[in-house]
Records
---
Amino acid sequence: MALLDISGFKSRSDQGVFRTESLQQWNRADHFTFGSKCQEFALPVGVDPVGFLKSCSGENGVSIDLDHGTTTLAFKFRHGVIVAVDSRASAGRYIASKEVNKVIEINPYLLGTMSGSAADCQYWERLLAKECRLYKLRNKERISVSAASKLLCNMMLGYRGMGLSVGSMICGWDKKGPGLYYVDDNGTRLSGRMFSTGCGNGFAYGVVDSGYHEDMTVEEAYELGLRGITHATHRDAYSGGVVNMYHMQEDGWIKVCQEDVSELIHRYKKGMF
Amino acid sequence: MAARYDRAITVFSPDGHLFQVEYAQEAVKKGSTAVGIRGKDIVVLGVEKKSVAKLQEERTVRKICVLDEHVCMAFAGLTADARIVINRARVECQSHRLTVEDPVTVEYITRYIATLKQRYTQSNGRRPFGISALIVGFDYDGTPRLYQTDPSGTYHAWKANAIGRSAKTVREFLEKNYTEEAITGDNEAIKLAIKALLEVVQSGGKNIELAIIRRNQPLKILESKEIETLVAEIEKEKEEEAEKKKQKKSS
C-alpha cells in the first residue's frame, strides 16, 4: 500500500519467522548490507550459535573440533608487500590437509589471507571477492584496499558475538600505493607495515622483526618471508605443509614460490639435526 | 481502500510515452533558470533569484546546496521535491565515506540521485520528482565534473549546461561562447556564467546568485557586491567591443 510504503511502517505479517529488514534496503543495488538483518543472511529467531559451538567442543562429550590453526605473515617493504602462508589444516589433533590454499586471489591487485576457521574464512573472503567484482562493474574502477578491508570488517561486525573465527590480511596495490590491512572476527581493522596471524604468529613475529630492514632487496625479503613461516611451522604443531609466497608489486601480484617446509628447515638449521 | 492506492501512477501510454515523467519535465521548465559551467580549475553554478515578497526574509530559500565538501548542486523545479533528494544525497555521501573510506566521485552521487529518481517512476502510488539537477564538483584526483539529471532518471556529463525556464536560450548562448579561451582562467569562467544568465534574467546583477568551487576548496557563494563588480566589468567589455566594431566600420 502506497502510504505504508512511504512511511516505512512494517506490518506484522511481513516479519514472520525470519528477522528481516524492509525490502527497500535489500533491493538497493549500490548499498553494502550484510549481517543477520539482511534478507540473504537472516537467522531464524531464537538460534544461539555460540552456545551450540560450546556444546560441540570436547568437554560435553561430543567432539567436533573445527578446522583451525595456521601461520600467515605479510609485511610492506620498499618494493611492495610480501605475503607468506603455510598450508596445514588441522581438526583437533588430526591433520585434515597439508595442501590448503590460504591465500585467496581476489583480483590481480588484491590478495586475502585466511587464518582461524577454514570454513568461515573461505566463505566470507569469497563473498568479499564477489563484492569487489560488483564494485568494479558498477564504478568502472578497481576497489581500493581500504574499501575492500572495510567491507570485510563490516561483514564481521554483522555477526559479532556469534562464533565466527576469522583472522585475515587484505593486501593490495591501489591509487594510494601498497596497502596492508588486518581484519578479524571482532571487527578489528588495522592498517600496518607488518602483520602475522594464526597460532604460529608469535614465532613468525620474532623471526621477521629481527631480520627486517627497510632497504631490503627483493631477494632478501623473499628469504625473510620463507624463514618466518618455516620457523613457525617447525615449532607450532598446527602449522606445516608448504610455504605459499606472493609478492604484491605496482602492476599486480606474482606468486613467488611454493616450498616444502621440511626441506627449508634443513637449510636454515644446518648443524641442528 | 488499499486497492485504490496500489495502482501505478506512471504507466506507459499506447505510443510508448511515460506521461507523468513528461509532465514532471514540464514542471521543471517552469522553475527558475540555473546554469553550470565546468572550467579547468573551477566549477561555477549560477541561478536566477526569484524576486521575494516585501515581508519575506531573503536568504531562507537557497537554490544552490552543498552535498559534501567537494560536491554541490543547483536544481530547477519543485523546491520541496528537491529538499528530499538533497537530504538523501547528503546521507549517501557520508555513508559512502564511512563504508569505502573515500569521498564520493561526482559521477557516483549523480548515479545515486538518478537511480533514486528512476525508482519513483516505477513504483506504485508515487509520482516522479519534479526537479532537474546540475551537480558539480571535483573528484578525488582533481578532475572537475558537471552532470545533469532529469525527472526520468537519466544523467549525462556536460561541459556547460542550463536547466529551467529559459534553458534553451541559455544553452544556445553557451554553445556559441564556450571555448577553450573562454574558460582559461577562473574569472573568465565566472564571467561566462554571469553573461549566460544576463541573457535571460531581468534587471541584471541583483537577480543572480553565484557559487563556485575551486579545487580542494569548499563551496563559496559570491556576495552581491562581488557580482555587481563583475557585472560592471562585463558591461564595460561589451561597450569596448561595440566601440571597436564602430571604429572598424567607419575606417
Note: Residues 1-6 of chain B have pLDDT under 50 and may be disordered.
---
Amino acid sequence: MGDSQYSFSLTTFSPSGKLVQIEHALTAVGSGQTSLGIKASNGVVIATEKKLPSILVDETSVQKIQHLTPNIGVVYSGMGPDFRVLVRKSRKQAEQYLRLYKEPIPVTQLVRETATVMQEFTQSGGVRPFGVSLLVAGYDDKGPQLYQVDPSGSYFSWKASAMGKNVSNAKTFLEKRYTEDMELDDAIHTAILTLKEGFEGEISSKNIEIGKIGADKVFRVLTPAEIDDYLAEVE
Amino acid sequence: MSIFEYNGSAVVAMVGKNCFAIASDRRLGVQLQTIATDFQRISKIHDHLFIGLSGLATDVQTLYQRLVFRHKLYQLREERDMKPETFASLVSAILYEKRFGPFLCQPVIAGLGDDNKPFICTMDSIGAKELAKDFVVSGTASESLYGACEAMYKPDMEAEELFETISQALLSSVDRDCLSGWGGHVYVVTPNEVKERILKGRMD
C-alpha cells in the first residue's frame, strides 16, 4: 500500500489525505470488545461486554464503565490502559471546571475537552493516538446526552451507537429497534438484546457491564443482581 | 492615604421583587482633584448581569475588560449566558489568582438568576465572596452607604420604589464623602427591561 510509507510518523499526511496512525488506532478500537449506548427519552444507558482472559480473573476487580462526574459516565472499546489515562484527564478537567465556576460541567463541554486531549495526541511529537473510542453518557440541564469520541478527536452525538468487534451487526440491530420515545428501562432491555446478538457464549451478569443515568442525574453502574433481573425480564 | 482611596468611588446594589438595582457615583479623581464627572463604574456583562467595580480606576477598567473577555468566550463555547452565581465564582477565582499582587478593586455583582430571582454579592480585592439578601455596598463611601441602606431598605420593593430608595441612599451617602459624588448612575433591571438613569446631586 502506498500509504505505508507515511505511516511511521504521526504528523505526516499520506498522499490520500489520511493520517495512517489514526486509521490504525481505529482498527485497534474495532478489534476491542463490543460496547454500545442508547439515549432514551428520560435517560441514557451504556453497556459493554466484559470478557476476561481467564476464569481465574476476579471479575469484581474489573470495572470498564467509569464515572467522570456524578452525572456523567463513560465506557470504551479498545485499549484499557489508554482508557484509564483518558478517564483520569477528563475527571481532572471536570473538577477544574467545578472549582472555577462552582457549577457542574455540562456534558458537551467535557466531551469537547476530552476530544481536544485526544486530538492533541494526533498532532504532537513522540506520542501516539489513544487506542480507544469512548461513549460518554450524561444528563444535565439540556437533558440526556450520548456522545462518541474517536481516537482522532472527532465527536458525535448519537441517539444510539455501538463500537468494537460487532459494530455493524449491533448498529443494524439498534437501527431497527430504536424508537424516539423509548424509556430508560426499554433502552436497557434493548441494550442487552443488542449485546446478545453477537455474544460468543452464554450472556450473564458476570460477563457484561451496564451503566445508566436517569432524570435523577446520578450515573450508576448496575450491580450483578440488577443485571440478572434485567436478563430475566429479557428472556 | 490608602491606594483604594486614590480615585474615590461608591457602588451599591439592592434586591427588589423579581428585580434588582445597581448604582454608582460618577466622580473620577486623583486624590483631591476631580478630573472626570462621567466615569463608568458599572458595566453590563449580559442583559441580566451587571458588575460595579470600586477602587483604583485603572484596575476597574482592566478587570472589566478581562471579565468581558472571559464571558464572551464562555458564551461562544457554551452557547448560553453565564448565571450570576457562576459569574461571581469566576470573578472570585480571577481575583485570587492575583493573591500576592491583587487587583485593587472591590466588585459588586448583581444579576437575575434562574426564574428571574435577583442575586447580589460583593467581594474584597482578593475574592472573598459575600452574598447578601438585601443590599451590598463598596467604595470610599461604603460606611455611609451601609447606614443609609440599612435605614431605607425594605424587602420586596417594586422597580420604581427600588429606584427611589437606591437613589436616595446613594446620594445621601456620597454627600458625606468628599472623594465620591458628582451625580449618580442607576440601573434598574427587571426580567423584561433595563432602565438606565442619571442622577443629578450635589455637584461637588
Note: Residues 39 and 179 of chain B are 13 Å apart (CA to CA).
